């Protein structure tokens, strides 16, 4: 090859390199709507590649819903049991050896597990373990974060092959909203109350280390006020929506719009985006509606 031709080809390659770098694949958020909550949950997961993308035969999988409150599904303080069951069924169909479901509750754990409807919805499913949190299973984890240098996290999550985060989207009086990023508090030990003084950086610290492989947000019924516990049916808005993404920040960002808010309005989302945990700007996210 002549030197002149070589220089010409190298110049062309140099021109294309920045464009190729800029063409990085956008994070995908699957959004499914309808009144069959099991079906729309499966549709949302399919929109981001299907459960077999995440779960392999023989895996131990943690499915972590919000069931922290002594509330019924109609009150929208916990993840809808039909959404949780659909996620667990998909995990089993993908070949999981065991599925573990738990939450560190705020109200009495026995009442929360039962009245949320989640314990009953999963009864009888093979290889599914719904157990109360056991304090001796928390392990101190080095975070080296901005707000937290270390914290106790639940050992069952740390040892699992796959961690699937299944929050409910709802109002929170201290953080504006609570969704995927904040649902991680259900696997944290210690005095979680003191975290609210710097909740954004603290949750970014935890989510940066303990990553959700898949986030499935229940927005079938959203709590619009008096969260996180709620209780008044007047505060519940039926949205018939389920959101799924491998990008927990993008999932939270989209869910925020269902409340008439912007992702930038939620400090936890902003802190996680700044940390590089995910994408907050929805114009940089591919929304797949099914």
Features:
290 residues, two-stranded antiparallel sheet, disordered N terminus, 10 helices, globular, 32% helix, 10-stranded mixed beta sheet
Which helices and strands occur, and which strands form pairs?
Blueprint: H1 3-22, E1 28-33, H2 37-47, E2 60-65, H3 81-93, E3 98-101, H4 109-115, H5 118-122, E4 128-130, E5 138-142, E6 150-154, H6 155-158, E7 162-166, E8 168-172, E9 176-178, H7 180-183, H8 199-209, E10 214-223, E11 236-245, H9 248-257, H10 267-274, E12 286-289
Parallel strand pairs: 1-12, 2-3, 2-7, 3-4, 7-10, 8-10
Antiparallel strand pairs: 1-11, 5-6, 8-9, 10-11
The CATH architecture designation is 3-Layer(aba) Sandwich
Would you report the number of β strands? Answer: 12
Q: What is the mean predicted local confidence, pLDDT?
A: 93
CATH superfamily heading: LarA, N-terminal domain
For this structure, the quaternary state is single chain
* Radius of gyration computed on alpha carbons: 20 Å
Report the CATH topology name.
Answer: Rossmann fold
Low-confidence spans: 3-23
